[in-house]
Amino acid sequence: MSINCNNIASIVDTLAALRSQEDSAPRCRNYFCFTHSSIIDETCRVAMVDWLSIVGSTLGFSQDTVWTSTSLFDRFMASERCPEECFTSKKIYQLAAITCFYLSAKIIEPITIGVDTLCQICRGTYSEDDITSMERSILEALEWRVSCPQPIDFVRHILRMLPDSGSANILEQSVAEFMTVASKDIYFSTQKPSAVGLTCLASALAEHEALLNAAETMKLRRQLSDSVCLDMCSMEILESRRRLSSCMTPSKPSHSISTKYVQTPSSPVSATQVIARQA
Prior knowledge:
By secondary structure, this protein is mostly helical. It has 15 helices and no strands. It starts with a helix and ends with a helix.
C-alpha cells in the first residue's frame, strides 16, 4: 500500500483538527485527590472498568465503547456538577458508570441497547427512571460535550501513514491491549488523549520492533513531530510509558477472578455487588 503526499497531508490535517478539539476540551482531573470519601476509591473504579469491559464484550460491542464510557465516567466524576452522592454511595457511583456505558453505546454502536435491557442486565437494581435521570445529570455536567477525541482516534490516523496495512493492523491490536490496561489507571484519563495514544503506540512499536525498520520508525516519528508536534520521544511520553509498563504486571486480576464481580447479559446477577464485594 503506497502513501502519497496528498494522503499524508489529509492525515496531518485530521490529526491537527483532533489536537485542536482536545485542546478546547476541559482536562479531566484525578477526582480521588479532591474527595475525602472513605467509600469510593480507585479499587472501586477498577472494578467498574472490569465490569464494563466484560459486559461490552458479551454484548459484542467494540472496545471503543468501553474506552469512551470510561472517559465519560471520569470526566463526569471530575466535574464540578457531579452530585456528592456519587462519592458517598457505591450504588450511585455504579449507576453513573453504567449510564456512561449506555451513553457511549448510543454514540458508537450501530445497534445499541435500550434502557429496559440495561435494567435487566442489572437485574432490577436500577429503574428506567434512575438511568434516564442520571443520563440527564451527566449530559448537563459535561455540557453535552460527549464526543471528545479518544486516544485510539489519534492512533488509527497515525497508522494510516504506514505503507504496510498488515503492520498497521498488528500494531493497532497491540495498542488496543495497552489501552485496555491504561483505562484502569485514572492517571491516563487526566492526560491528553493524544499523549495516551502516543504512549500506547510507542509501547506497541517497542513490542513489535521487527515490523518496522529503524528508518521507517524514524520517518514516522519525524513526520509526527514536524507536522503536528507529536513527539513520541518526549519526556512526557517516556514517563507515561514507564507508568503503563508498571501497570502491566502478572498479578493483575485474571478474567476468571473478575467475573465473580460482574453480571453479563447471559447470566445477569445483581449489579450492586460489583463494588460492594471489594470492600
